Every structure is written in C-alpha cells, then in structure tokens.
Amino acid sequence: MNDSLLPISKVANTGAEKRAISYANTIFNLFDSVLSTKQPADRVIANYFREHKKHGSKDRRVIRESLFGLFRWWGWIQQLGNHKQEDIFFSMLASAAQLENHPWGDIRDGWLAFSQHCEVLTPLPVPTSESVSDKLLAFQQFSNIHTTSIDQLLPDWFWQHCIIESEVEKQLFIQAMSTRPPIWARAQQASRHVVLQKLSRDNVEASGSEFFDDTINLGHNSINLNQVAAYTEGYLEIQDLASQVIGQMCAPQANSEWWDACSGAGGKSLQLLSLMQQAGIEGNIIASDIRTSALNELLKRAKRAHFKHISITPWKTELLPVKADYFDGVLVDAPCSCTGTWRRNPDMRWIDDVSAITEKPELQLDILKRSAEAVKMGGALLYATCSLTEIENQSVVNAFLKANTQFELECLTHPFTGESTTMLTVWPQQADTDGMFVVKMRRKC
Fold first, then answer.
1. According to the annotation, is 366 in a ligand binding site?
2. Is residue 250 annotated as a catalytic residue, yes or no?
3. Ordered per-residue pLDDT tens for the chain, 445 residues
4. Where are the beta strands (DSSP E) in 108-241?
5. What is the 3-state secondary structure (H, E, C) of 236-263?
C-alpha cells in the first residue's frame, strides 16, 4: 500500500475532531492506494489490517465502510474536485457518510467542519428515504452540483455495453447496485433446518430463502466464520444466491460425471456434489483451473465438507486436461469482467476500464470451444459468467453455436421471475443478489 498521507493543516479542537483527522488520514491512504495501484479494495484493506493490528472492531468498521462508501458514490463524489486536496477530501468523506447513513455522526461532523462545505448547516442534507433518487437530491443540495444523475453511479463505458431499455428497470438496477447485498450461503451435508439451528446456537442471525431449499441468508452483519461451528464443521458454504442459480440449472442426474472446467476455488463444484447428495444420487466432479492455489483451496473446502467425490486436474497446457466425449455435464464458469459483482466491490467499477469487458470475449469463446470437446453425446454444456454485458454473454454463446452446430440451446425457467428463456440473466434487483448469466446447451445425439 502507498504511504501517502493527506496534507492536513487543520487543527483539532475536540476528541471527535482528532479522531476524524486520524480516520481521514488512514482512509485517504487506502483510497489513494486503490486508485493508483488498481488493486482491489478488499485486498488492500485486508493487507492494511493485517499489518496494523492496533485497530479495534469499531475502528475497522469506520475505516472499511467509509472506504467502500467513497467508491459506491464516487460517480457523484468525484465531481466535488481533486481528492488529494484536504478540504475536498473531507467534503467527500462527509458526503459519503451521509449518503450511507453511517452511525458515527460525530466523526462525520468533524469531517464536515474541515471541508470545503463547512458553511453548510449541520446536520447535512438528509435523504428522505433509501431511494437512490432521494439520495441524489440530498447530494445536489449539499454539493450545489445539479448536473448529477443516477446513471453516473456507474461508468459511462459500462452503459455502452449494458443496455436496459426500460427506465423503470434501469432505476431499479442502479438502486440495487448502490447497496450491498446480504451474505448468502448454502446448507450442505444436512437440511437447512438443521443448519439454521446450528447457527442459532452460535447466535448467528440467519433465515431461509423462498427460492431454493438449501439457501441461507446471513444478512449484512460481519461474521467471523471461523467461530461458527456450522461453517467449521462443513455444514455451511458461503455462495451468493445468483451463483447458486448456476448449479441449480446444471441439475445433475443420477450417477453422472461432471467437469467444472473453470472451477476457481470450487464453490460450484461443491454445490454440484451437494445437489447430488440431496437427491440421493451418486456422482463425481472433476475440477480444473490454471491456478493451482485456487485448486488447493477447493481441496481444503471439500475436506471441510467431508466430500470425497471431487478430484482436481489443472489446465497445464492448451490441451484438454480431461477425457474427450466423456462427461454428462460440463460447466464453463468463464473468466469475465465481473460487472455482476460490483455491488460487493464498488471500487472495481472505477479502477477498471472498458478493456475489462472488451478483452474477454475472445478468451471466453476459446475456453468454451475447448471445454465442449469433453461433453459426451446427449450431455449438457453450461456457460456462465458473473458479467452483465452482452458481448461477454449472448454474443459469445451465439458465436459458439454458429461454429458448433452439434449443440443446441435448452429452455430454462428463471427461478426469480418464472420467465421461460434460453439465455438467463440474473439481475441484482430481482432477489437482492449479485448479477449472473447462464445458458444450458445439449449435445445432440
């Protein structure tokens, strides 16, 4: 992390103002480091807390939530000016705290007192609701910048590749992208009821979901999973609800062989095997990735869950790492721009540029073509991304089908809307999730 500090000339007169300055310096250091190094904010802040163990839980919360708040509203806040100028950065912190409705009012007021907007009467203009439109009005009142719009909460280049025709749906989408989704998880090796009881014994608030029988909603509270028995004993696996849709669409059958061709750390591999067990059927999963560190993490997670029917085979060359014409199902969760995860990682929308989208389709199509060779006659081929852009999703699938006529699309039922479609997009506003895309193809017999 950069060791740059905000050049503060202000003099603190109260304890709250001293804390406000201290927090501002730390947050500026983290914020500027993310922008300059293009490293993900969660990685930067994790490294910082690892190196600075002096911070208690309250300090960590103020620093973390203020940092992510800046990025969440950066489309508006950046219009206040250069963040490296002292009074402007204090204005940015105060504005983000008010838009996020943070509870540390004394710190926020200290930031305001040192800001370029110190003449604004306190309290700051308060949004009349959690609506992004009401937050926009509050920001305009605070900043006196009336050219701001809700579209600006996402970069211009994103809108060039994600067209939403309905203005109502567009506003709902932006509203969702301006909030954090809850922590979603799955029950495995036991019923959801049993896992919820285990969580309750550890005083962890959780609830089920109407969509899938094994889904668990852990809310928005910070949880130390290593102190939660349901997790350490392998009964709970963290996985966003949108991601869970992918495994549900795979719908593995009895005694089936599946290949997770881009497994990463194996969340969907674990889900596939869990779904097989829930159905009382047996099967095997082979997981592949080019990153051995990710595959090692998968093995740790499988061991924790007591799963014995998952094996790994890394991609070492461009040659297929598994048997051709062999698998009942192949899942290609392709590398992508990850625009569907921007709710959890608001910094990525500002440290990436359009190349994060435009450079992916060629690679995605190549991986899909290679992986398709492993599907046996009558087998299923699923293509998924956590992107919301057409060129990474529908365009890749159409290009593949044009060149591989032995595959055809299957119709899927959207689990959140009931819509029947061949190209299923999970939008964040539909069920308070990340964004995902999935299609299911079948190799003709």
1. no
2. no
3. 555 566 667 677 788 889 999 999 999 999 999 999 999 999 999 999 999 888 888 999 999 999 999 999 999 999 999 999 989 999 999 999 999 999 988 999 899 988 877 765 555 677 778 899 999 999 998 898 999 999 999 999 999 999 898 999 999 999 999 999 999 999 999 999 999 999 999 999 999 999 999 999 999 988 889 999 999 999 999 999 999 999 999 999 888 999 999 999 999 999 999 999 888 888 899 999 999 999 999 999 999 999 989 999 999 998 999 999 999 999 999 999 999 999 999 999 999 999 999 999 999 999 999 999 999 999 999 999 999 999 999 999 999 999 999 999 999 999 999 999 999 999 999 999 999 999 999 999 8
4. 184-187, 207-208, 215-217, 236-238
5. EEECCHHHHHHHHHHCCCCCEEEEECCC
Query: How far apart, in whole angstroms, are the C-alpha atoms of residue 393 and residue 70?
Result: 30
Quote the strand ranges of 111-225, DSSP E.
Answer: 184-187, 207-208, 215-217
Q: What is the CATH number of the domain that holds 437?
A: 3.40.50.150
Residues 190 and 106 in one domain: no
Exposure on the CB side of residue 16, measured as CA atoms within 13 A = 11
Spatial neighbors of 383 by CB under 8 A, at least 6 apart, are 332, 334, 368, 396, 397, 400, 438, 439, 441
Say if residue 112 is in the same domain as residue 74.
yes
Report how far residue 363's alpha carbon sits from residue 234's, in angstroms, rounded to the nearest whole number: 34
DSSP, collapsed to helix, strand or coil, labels residue 180 as coil
Tell me the DSSP string of 30-47.
Answer: HHHHHHHH---HHHHHHH
Burial class (CB in 10 A: 0-12, 13-18, 19+), 165: exposed
What 3-state DSSP class applies to 99? Answer: helix
Non-local CB neighbours of 24 within 8 Å, separated by 6+ positions: 6, 8, 89, 90, 93, 111, 114
Which pTM does this prediction carry? Answer: 0.93
| DSSP per-residue letters across 371-388 | HHTTEEEEEEEEEEES--
- Domain limits at 60? 15-153
Q: Tell me how many domains the chain contains.
A: 3
Neighbours of 376 (CB within 10 A): 17
Please tell me whether 333 is known to bind a ligand.
yes
Query: What is the distance between the alpha carbons of residues 103 and 402, in angstroms, rounded to a whole number?
Result: 55
Location of structure tokens 């297929």: 320
Whether 245 and 234 share a structural domain: no
CA angle (95 as vertex; 90, 97 as ends), nearest 5? 95
Is there a single domain that holds both residue 299 and residue 384? yes
Give me the half-sphere count of Cα atoms (radius 13 Å) on the Cβ side of residue 124: 33
* Options 162, 262, 386, 445, the catalytic residue: 386
